[in-house]
Amino acid sequence: MFRLSQQDEERARRLHKESIVADTLAHALYSGCVFSQNMLKRLDEFSKDVSTQVILDEMARMETQEVVGGSFKEYKERWEASGVDVASVSVGQVTPNVLLDIALWTRKCDSLDWLVKATSVKDIKQAKKEGKRAVIFSFQHNHIGDDLDNVDFFHNLGVRIMELTCQVRNSIGDGQGERTDCGLSAFGTRVVKRMNELRILIDLTHSGHKTMMDTIEISTKPVILSHATCSAVYKSSRSSTDDELKALAQNNGLCSINLVPGFLTSKNNQPSLDHFLDHLEHAIEIMGIDKVGIGTDWGSHFKTQDLVDRWNERMTSIYMIPELDYGDFPEGFEDWSDCPNITCGLVSRKYSDKEIEGILGGNFLRVFKQVVG
Length: 373
Ligand SMILES: [Zn+2]
Hints:
Layout: H1 6-18, E1 22-23, H2 37-47, H3 52-69, H4 73-82, E2 86-90, H5 98-111, E3 115-117, H6 121-129, E4 133-139, H7 149-156, E5 159-163, H8 186-198, E6 201-203, H9 209-218, E7 224-230, E8 239-240, H10 242-250, E9 254-257, H11 261-264, H12 273-287, E10 292-294, H13 305-319, H14 339-348, H15 353-371
Parallel strand pairs: 1-2, 2-4, 3-4, 4-5, 5-6, 7-8, 7-9, 9-10
Helix pairs in contact: 1-14, 2-3, 3-5
The structure holds zinc ion (ZN).
Zinc ion is lined by residues 140, 205-206, 227, 297.
């Protein structure tokens, strides 16, 4: 879609292959939207008389069983086509049963010879060297509850990136979709301190404005927005203002831009990779070329209307986000395996090799190294 010359096309392909490509929130890897027709049929049959919660647990279990059992070949093929070397996977997302989800991901990493759980930059680099893919366990939702010891508990289970609030209010603070903007709670300030001590990377993507600013002020370590957009380009319930991006830049943090259609542009436009690049370009203008990254947060659409409806219903009720429609996708990024098109887009916007390597993953690795190790 970018009409590159053959030389630029080759350059993009080389950069995508040689760089460490990081997706700071890779949703497309899991959930029923990537299932084979056979799996969807089974899931549909299973879904008839059970609650959404039970379906979600089954969805997560089925995926792991099929991947580990070797019958879900598209999973690995798709990952290889994406060229993504390290993906932050949000545990407790597809199924809110976070311990089940961690157990399933751990099983995948333990069973597959091409997948590793990364808890350091060293792990990620080693995986790249050996031609393997790496995952970082992360949180979007507050699984800490009101018990500070849970920060340690989940750190011990390998979680290295945690969001503080996910759109709505919780014990830590107000989220981005909340009707008030009260910032961090007293408990939330203790959580931030403990995350700093344990070297957990704090993610403020779904946080309310004040929660974000409070955290940036209190945190002794850089923080990130793992899948945001820029309000100045298109305002949505996931976008960040220039003031927020400036504060994040001063904190030496990182802003990754997402590819969720409803966050890129209005419903009157066909969302495309160009809209994504516009958000990225703006973040670069405000924060600097070394402080931006990619957090797709998308990359597939469900193939049966029933699942689309069920998923939309769940997402609307827990996230309070009106812009989502799980049947939609941006032009040029119809599936996660289209990630190489992002690099073609970066080449088309005339960034240098070094700049592209940074955007693709180098910038994220800098922050991850500094905070996590
Ligand atoms: Zn999110």
